[in-house]
Amino acid sequence: MFPEALLLGMPSAEFWQGEPRLILSYMEARRLKNEREELLTSQTMDYQAWLTGLYCYQAFGVVLANSFSKKGKSAKYPKEPISFKNHKKKERDPEKEVIGMYAGFKALTDTLNKNIKPSNVKK
Predict the structure, then answer these.
(1) In this structure, what are the phi and psi dihedrals at residue 81, rounded to the nearest 5 degrees?
(2) Of 71, 80, 84, 121, which sits 20 to 30 A from 43 (CA to CA)?
(3) In the prediction, which pLDDT does 120 show?
């Protein structure tokens, strides 16, 4: 039992001369520490997976934008990594963002619809 107590961080003097129930407190503290470390690891992995998805999203967006662009290759992949540390908040205009997304989607659908030939439609 002594080696286990040492692994829990209990000083040897406390183990030999202290209250026997004290080891339960050390066990509970270790359990809580392990839970918190597991949660932090899980959150870090989730964030890394999300960031990878963001990079893929941007890469696919560049490819699609350049594929359907009339002017040639206009979209570019970021030259620097995305960093959220010391990120300055930009003033966002939700209305402009929605209008921009609509314009991009409309251009994409218009391009795709040009290539669709009418099938045998009964009138």
Answers:
(1) -60, 155
(2) 80
(3) 53
Structure-token pair, residue 69: 């662009």
Average pLDDT over residues 32-43: 94
Q: Look at 9 and 86; give whichever has higher pLDDT.
A: 9
**Could you tell me which residues come within 8 angstroms of residue 65 by beta carbon, excluding any fewer than 6 positions away?**
74, 75, 104
Angle at 37 between CA 34 and CA 40, to 5 degrees: 150
For the entire predicted model, the pTM comes to 0.50
Residue 108 burial class via C-beta count within 10 angstroms: exposed 0-12, middle 13-18, buried 19 and up? middle
Q: Which of 117, 103, 116, 95 is nearest to 69 (CA)?
A: 103
Please name the residues in contact with 6: beta carbons below 8 A apart, sequence gap of 6 or more.
Answer: 12, 15
Looking up tokens 């183990």 gives 15
